[in-house]
Design a protein that fits this description.
Helices cover about 45% and strands about 20% of the residues. It has about 325 residues and is α/β, with parallel strands linked by helices. Strands 1, 2, 3, 4, 5, 6, 7, 8, 9 and 10 form a ten-stranded mixed β-sheet that branches.
Length: about 325
């Protein structure tokens, strides 16, 4: 009888110990992997989020850049990490929805091995031309492209990028037939637009805003579901009469699948509180990002968002005739 009681007490103690460990999370620094090189919206978001989450979690959240393979190196590392809440990743289009469709030897399954914690921000893409372009509206740009088959071009930051996907959806929605010109990132394509070597760009609003403010480009439309408060005069493609071409870039928080519910709940709360921080919101919104709130900043909402984005990207990949390589 004594032995039985001792075993029961030991078992209860083990349960209590486990519960206490979960309730005490985090007990050491948390690593936040950023899937791209320093610089750019994803890196900035990750570092701002790490700072705010450190305050909420009571432990350092250390931002770590792990670039390569369009975000897949980071995706694989985090997907195969221990699901204890101490390794997280800034999720984005590349490692979550684009790479699974375009990389034949992806070392992870984002839908089975990565758990969404919540969406952080979305950033619209813009359809932009030089300030002296004869096209003053997106309708005029479409008409110009149809009148000159094969001559009107659109630059993107690379084949398979979200910008490229937006161009394919734009062509499908408008029948414009603009010719895709891939670059190695946003940097190289901007001088070509300004020099007149490419007719237009599809680029993130965060990159387009400085050029707009300098009077170098004209924004014809945004590819988001709503107008941006930073450029309220610029219509969405749907408002311009071309629905079905919505495409945004985004950043959110993901973790290895299999987190304890208590750890997930702690991370969700820390994320939501961080996104509500006035300083963070002001910084991100000033760059053209829309900060997520409500259902989108939850695991269920972000999971649904990723699935919808995957279907959009899948359609764009099929339109472009791309195959995994």
């Amino acid at each position: 009888m004594t032995t039985r009681r001792m075993l029961l007490a030991a078992g209860l103690g083990l349960v209590a110990s486990r519960a206490g460990a979960q309730q005490g999370y985090p007990e050491r620094p948390v690593r936040l992997v950023i899937p791209y090189a320093p610089g750019g919206t994803t890196d900035l978001f990750g570092r701002l989020l790490a700072s705010r989450m450190s305050e909420r979690l009571g432990q350092p959240v250390v931002a770590e850049n792990r670039a390569g393979a369009g975000g897949s190196l980071a995706g694989e590392a985090v997907a195969n990490a221990k699901p204890d809440g101490y390794t997280l990743m800034v999720g984005s289009n590349g490692p979550l929805t684009v790479n699974p469709l375009l990389q034949a030897h992806l070392g992870y399954d984002p839908f089975r091995q990565l758990a969404p914690i919540g969406l952080g921000i979305t950033v619209p893409l813009t359809v932009e031309v030089r300030a002296d372009s004869p096209a003053r509206t997106v309708q005029e740009f479409v008409a110009m492209a149809k009148a000159q088959p094969g001559r009107i071009t659109a630059g993107s930051s690379g084949t398979g990028s979200s910008n490229h996907m937006a161009i394919e959806l734009f062509n499908a929605a408008t029948g414009a037939g603009v010719v895709h010109v891939p670059y190695r990132g946003s940097g190289p394509m901007i001088p070509d637009l300004l020099a007149g070597n490419v007719s237009s760009l599809f680029d993130q609003l965060t990159t387009s805003l400085p050029l707009l403010r300098e009077g170098k480009v004209r924004l014809l439309a945004v590819t988001a579901p709503r107008r941006s408060p930073l450029v309220p005069e610029v219509p969405t493609l749907a408002e311009a009469g071309y629905p079905g071409a919505e495409m945004v870039t985004y950043n959110g928080l993901v973790a290895p699948a299999g987190l304890a519910p208590e750890v997930t709940a702690r991370l969700v709360r820390a994320l939501q509180e961080s996104l509500a921080d006035a300083g963070l919101r002001e910084r991100l919104e000033g760059l053209g990002a829309e900060v997520a709130s409500g259902a989108l900043a939850t695991p269920e909402g972000f999971a649904a968002f990723i699935r919808e984005d995957f279907e959009r990207v899948k359609r764009a990949v099929e339109l472009a005739g791309l195959r995994p390589s």
